[in-house]
């Protein structure tokens, strides 16, 4: 089964504390990710404003082989901003757990389904391809998660992203839940891990074992709170341990990692960590 990498360094990676890439750095990172050969680059969130939109437009205009996408809420203005950036693929994120829907947003399950349907149809009507994300899927009720996945399939979404938003899964549960989901809905699956318990890479590899064909990562594991699955770890685990051909030119990985470490302000930390490891 082919496995494809979705790199979200320029979106989720920039949510790491203290990380803010310049537009020029974002363009350089996108070019290096393209050279590496990732299938998709999640280039940012256009709703954040003009500077973000300018960077995304610049990346789109490069004409890279990697497909460029944006992250959006179930809000039509978000999608209009993405259209203005010139992308052909949008990711629409829907909260699916009771904690997110009832207690954070004060909404209902029906409201989520209605807003998601409207957002997807708006995007599709404007010629955009769509992937749907289940935000906080690992704490969702199974029945409602399945409803959202079926809706994504019915409206014509390319994929359904299962998000372990707060990093509560372990590899065994990951295999169990994604195997179940794959058996119950006929749509391509994507997995998005967070590293709160240090299991992001293990959980992502487990998702592949469950039959998931698209997996998310960030360079150096950058991301919200404890970060995401590190691109370096994930690629090498899938290639060296499982013998998968990801279609990547791995020689481009070290310079990409060094560049992102410098641009994110993490180079000093990484160097210090490496130095300590050499001490007796």
Question: Layout of helices and strands, plus pairs?
Answer:
Elements: E1 4-7, H1 23-36, E2 40-42, H2 50-60, E3 67-72, H3 76-85, E4 89-95, H4 98-104, H5 109-125, E5 129-135, H6 142-155, E6 159-163, H7 171-184, E7 188-192, H8 200-209, E8 214-217, H9 231-241, H10 253-263, H11 267-278
Parallel strand pairs: 1-2, 1-8, 2-3, 3-4, 4-5, 5-6, 6-7, 7-8
Helix pairs in contact: 1-2, 1-10, 2-3, 5-6, 7-8, 8-9
Q: What's the CATH H-level superfamily name? A: Aldolase class I
C-alpha geometry: globular
Q: How many helices?
A: 11
Largest sheet: 8 strands, parallel, barrel
The CATH topology assignment is TIM Barrel
Distance between the termini: 44 Å
Helices and strands, in order, run as EHEHEHEHHEHEHEHEHHH
Q: State which percent range the strand residues make up.
A: 5-15%
Instruction: Give the number of DSSP strands.
Output: 8
Helix content: 40-55%
């Amino acid at each position: 089964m082919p496995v494809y990498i979705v790199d979200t360094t320029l979106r989720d990676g920039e949510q790491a504390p203290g990380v803010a890439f310049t537009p020029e750095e974002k363009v350089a990172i996108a070019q290096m990710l393209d050279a590496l050969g990732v299938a998709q680059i999640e280039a940012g969130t256009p709703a954040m404003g003009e500077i973000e939109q300018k960077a995304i437009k610049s990346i789109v205009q490069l004409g890279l082989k990697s497909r460029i996408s944006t992250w959006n809420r179930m809000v039509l203005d978000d999608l209009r901003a993405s259209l203005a950036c010139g992308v052909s693929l949008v990711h629409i994120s829907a909260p699916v757990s009771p904690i997110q829907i009832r207690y954070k947003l004060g909404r209902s399950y029906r409201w989520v389904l209605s807003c998601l349907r409207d957002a997807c149809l708006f995007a599709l009507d404007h010629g955009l391809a769509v992937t749907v994300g289940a935000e906080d899927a690992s704490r969702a009720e199974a029945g409602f998660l399945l409803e959202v996945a079926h809706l994504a399939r019915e409206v014509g979404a390319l994929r359904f992203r299962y998000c372990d938003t707060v990093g509560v899964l372990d590899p065994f549960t990951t295999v169990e839940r994604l195997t179940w989901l794959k058996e119950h809905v006929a749509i391509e699956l994507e997995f998005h891990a967070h590293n709160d318990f240090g299991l992001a890479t293990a959980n992502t590899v487990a998702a592949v074992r469950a039959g998931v064909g698209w997996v998310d990562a960030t360079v150096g594991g950058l991301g919200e709170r404890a970060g995401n699955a590190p691109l370096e770890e994930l690629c090498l685990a899938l290639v060296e341990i499982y013998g998968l051909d990801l279609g990547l030119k791995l020689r481009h990985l070290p310079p990409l990692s060094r560049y992102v470490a410098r641009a994110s302000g993490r180079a000093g930390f990484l160097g210090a960590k490496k130095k300590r490891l050499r001490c007796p």
